[in-house]
Design a protein that fits this description.
The chain has about 400 residues and is of the alpha/beta class. Strand 6 and strand 7 form a beta hairpin. Helix 7 packs across helix 13 and helix 14 packs across helix 17. The longest helix has 13 residues.
């Protein structure tokens, strides 16, 4: 087995330039988790800390994950090497594999909330005991919850995990809110001109998503608008890209790309696109919920049952559900916003997630927090993909 000659492991003392640091492992099982961990990495910037990364591979890997992580520029340890070492802190945005690593574990959600919206008979919610306990012990030292309501659920589902719970809000939503003043910059980066309307189609993954069940809506939105005052963008769940591959996704949308569809890459850009949008046509996925939370006008495609009381359920009760047998533009024009209740259902710590997360991280490390205040950075400019199947 090949091991990475990084700052941890056998012989590390003889090759490090800076010694005596606290070692933090960031576990990235897939791009979805990685996109949330991107928001946490700035909180680990400290001269007393060394950060390394790993990708669990004990039950297979998701296409594109390693390339995504390596673009961060950090040391990536093979999974077998990572589980052989002990770390001062492990940070993850999924419970996948964290019972196999050694060190205090902090787990945060990688979408809207820890509970999830879908009701699936083969999988219970993310706060169920089977998700949190291994061999009779609660795995995580800190279980980050987005909302006080989740704490009440945890008390019922896994009371022994309550001492580890931290109601920390939603760092993704906080960054979206911080990005709102940059709306015009994002629109210019997408090529959306003054006076143009941007409609974004937000799709989660699986057969019951927009892209899975209603792939014709992208073509229809381009064809049913008869002037150049309207632009259309597509935001697809990273797992769609991972399962089918970027080439295939773009091949399926090739005709739409030729006619001006803005295809947002899975790693980043979706949040800036939501801020830039005028209306979002979506399904039950987290992206649609985040769009509603920042005040975008929302129209929904018909979607399957979701968990009662979830943000997706709250949105389904309020937003326009389109009739796909009728023309789409008039229905999108009639879509409404003002769904502030969705933001309140996503987080009970608005604007405070980064501060709570940093406090928790340094508490687990056993050192003082940095003196400087936590800053919430706006998301970067979007960079839609080109239409050529051979280009980036």
């Amino acid at each position: 087995m090949e091991w990475t000659k990084g700052p941890v492991g056998p012989g590390a003392a003889g090759r490090v330039t800076r010694a005596g640091l606290l070692n933090v492992l960031v576990v990235v099982p897939h791009v979805v988790a990685g996109t949330r961990l991107v928001d946490v990495l700035p909180l680990l910037v400290d001269r007393r800390i060394q950060v390394v990364f790993t990708i669990p591979d004990w039950d297979g890997t998701w296409h594109g994950t390693e390339e995504f992580v390596r673009r961060w520029g950090g040391v990536v340890l093979p999974w077998r090497q990572a589980v052989a070492e002990r770390f001062d802190l492990v940070v993850a945005a999924s419970h996948r594999g964290v019972d196999r690593v050694r060190g205090p574990v902090l787990v945060l959600p990688h979408g809207v909330g820890a509970m999830k919206s879908r009701t699936r008979p083969w999988r219970s919610h993310g706060l169920a005991r089977e998700a949190l306990v291994r061999d009779g012990r609660v795995v995580a030292a800190a279980i980050v919850l987005s909302h006080e309501a989740e704490l009440a659920v945890l008390r019922g589902s896994c009371p022994e995990a309550v001492p580890a719970a931290v109601v920390g809000g939603d760092v993704c939503l906080d960054r979206l809110v911080a990005s709102l003043p940059h709306r015009e910059r994002y629109r210019r980066a997408l090529g959306v001109g003054a006076g143009q309307t941007l409609t974004t189609v937000s799709s989660t993954w699986t057969e019951q998503s927009v892209f899975g069940a209603h792939p014709e809506v992208y073509r229809r939105l381009l064809d049913e608008r008869t002037d150049d005052r309207h632009r259309v963008a597509a935001v697809l769940h990273p797992n769609t890209w991972a399962v089918h591959g970027p080439w295939q996704v773009r091949a399926w949308l090739a005709d739409c790309l030729r006619d001006g569809l803005l295809l947002v890459p899975p790693e980043e850009g979706w949040r800036a696109t939501l801020v830039a949008s005028d209306v979002v046509l979506g399904d039950h996925g987290s992206t649609t919920q985040y769009a509603a939370a920042i005040g975008r006008r929302i129209a929904l495609v018909p979607f399957p049952d979701v968990r009662e009381g979830s943000p997706a359920d709250e949105l389904a009760r309020r937003a326009t559900v389109v009739d796909l047998t009728r023309p789409l533009p008039p229905q999108l024009d009639a879509a409404t916003g003002g769904h502030e209740v969705i933001a309140k259902s996503i987080t009970s710590r608005p604007g405070a997630a980064a501060a709570v997360l940093r406090l928790t991280i340094f508490r687990l490390l056993g050192i003082s927090e940095p003196e400087q205040e936590v800053e919430i950075d706006p998301v970067p400019l979007p960079r839609p993909l080109g239409e050529s199947l051979g280009s980036g």
